[in-house]
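Predict fold of Putative gluconeogenesis factor; 358 aa.
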Amino acid sequence: MTASQSQSQSEPGRTAPRSEAGMSVQDSDGRGPSIVALGGGHGLYATLSAARRLSDDVTAVVTVADDGGSSGRLRAELGVIPPGDLRMALAALAAEDADVKTWTTTLQHRFGGTGALAGHTVGNLILAGLTEVLGDTVSALDEVARVLRIRGRVLPMSPIPLAIEADVAGLEADPRVCRTIRGQVAVATTPGQVRRVRLLPPDPPATPDAVAAIERADLVLLGPGSWFTSVIPHALVPDLAAALQNTSARKALILNLAPEPGETAGFSAERHLHVLAQHAPDLRVDDVLVDSDSVPEGRERDHLCRAAARLGATVGYADVARTGTATHHPGKLAAAIDRIASVTPESSHTGREPTSWQ
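Predicted 3D structure, encoded as tokens:
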């Protein structure tokens, strides 16, 4: 996927925030609504590529449990927060000026060969180095964001690297027996069925700036992405979970276009919501955004609506996919998010039976 074409207000396909009457307006500071997007990897990249079309005030809150590839090597060797998902979020929000594009391309460049640098991306090494020089990851991210002329921010969900542990069925002769496996890569690629995930250490701290961003947000977006390893973990960090519960922001959950091989193989859209509710029973969201073609009309949509009701949400259907693919189209996703953002408190479903829209 690519980032949006420009951060300019005159950018084709960019939608300005809407007033209560549905007219396009700018906030008093001209930046647009405050949007916070939570996730990791390619799913978060898709959300950020869409959100930047609606606002210059976008904050990414990124998972920090990756233990594979370049990120896993740097984490093991230096003890740093795994930088890969953070780097991708920076690239998604980077300005489109020609000189900045050179930096963005370089940050995303992965070394080849067979030596010590093989497989590392330049951006991962820069973030690791800046973290050592400046003393903390947030300062390193803010410095790279300055170079990339990012209007918003990229933040780790926790100031320490975390690990994911999962209870997985189907790995033993007795299908009822669960085995505990540890590590994001192991969980994401397991041939078994993930039943529950936990973070290690238990009850980890949240990055204070991430909590503050959620508390002041106008709109919070969760997903899409690897469900057990990129989406659910945000609700398992106590201070982030509390911020999501207490914020006055409108909250939207963006579902994946298709199950992912490994951790959610065979999952229906309804099942995605059930496992989220099992892990975060106190989480409430306002909207669940679903691609129109991913859930056929009829009983499946009825079941999905009932599952969304457990989260207090309305289900919205929209064409948000790149034609013929299982990836989100930034422009289509931006239009769907804008529809959610333009809902006023008076027209919200709050206080009535959750329904669906299309």
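The chain has three domains: 1-64+204-358, 67-156, 163-200.
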